[in-house]
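Exercise 7b. Backbone tokens:
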């Protein structure tokens, strides 16, 4: 029986590996993950949604429509309490340059320079969407609460992981192993909520 191809609307190999680990942990087989690098290029709409859910669903629908494959997409970011929930959907381009992790993190730390520890609460948010040709769209949301550290810690992860210290632990998200992060992270939580829809795909 041929495996069902599932397009992951990302060029980030770490995101593909993360979804693979979630599928494996759920015992879902029969799904072959394909990244954007492995399909013909198609015009990708800019992320103009006001919410993570809008952006994730737009990406999933674009990918599905362009390739005819079911497509899973996520939009995620960091909501900082002292910044009224910013950077939020602007997380990847907070410093003005899309995807410049170091500059984004440095700007965030500068903005929180005089904010006391008890007001440094924050949450990583991930919305994951699954769009299936001729089928139902699913959108789920996962959140991971914690606080913003005073300086970057750890070498793992990406984005704001080095300055995010999850609740209940003293280590940053960039100091966790892949397995520890999957178990707790916002994207891991959201992807696990998608499992019933993904199981239906592999059936």
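Sequence design result:
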């Amino acid at each position: 029986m041929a495996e069902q191809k599932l397009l992951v609307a990302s060029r980030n190999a770490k995101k593909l590996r993360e979804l693979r680990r979630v599928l494996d942990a759920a015992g879902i087989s029969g799904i072959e993950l394909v990244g954007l690098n492995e399909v013909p290029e198609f015009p990708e709409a800019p992320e103009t949604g006001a919410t993570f859910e809008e952006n994730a669903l737009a990406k999933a629908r674009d990918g599905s429509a362009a390739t005819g494959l079911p497509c899973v997409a996520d939009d995620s970011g960091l909501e900082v309490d002292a910044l009224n929930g910013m950077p939020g959907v602007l997380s990847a381009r907070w410093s003005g340059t899309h995807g410049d992790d170091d500059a984004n993190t440095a700007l965030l730390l500068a903005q929180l320079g005089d904010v006391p520890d008890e007001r440094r609460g924050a949450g990583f948010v991930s919305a994951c969407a699954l769009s299936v040709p001729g089928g139902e769209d699913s959108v789920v949301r996962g959140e991971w609460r914690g606080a913003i550290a005073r300086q970057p810690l750890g070498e793992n992860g990406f984005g704001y992981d080095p300055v995010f210290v999850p609740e209940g632990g003293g280590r940053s998200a960039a100091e966790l192993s892949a397995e520890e992060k999957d178990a707790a992270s916002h994207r891991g939580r959201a992807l696990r909520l998608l499992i019933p829809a993904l199981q239906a795909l592999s059936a």
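Instructor comment: Helices lie at 13-25, 52-67, 101-111, 178-184, 186-193, 195-202. The chain has a mean pLDDT of 93.
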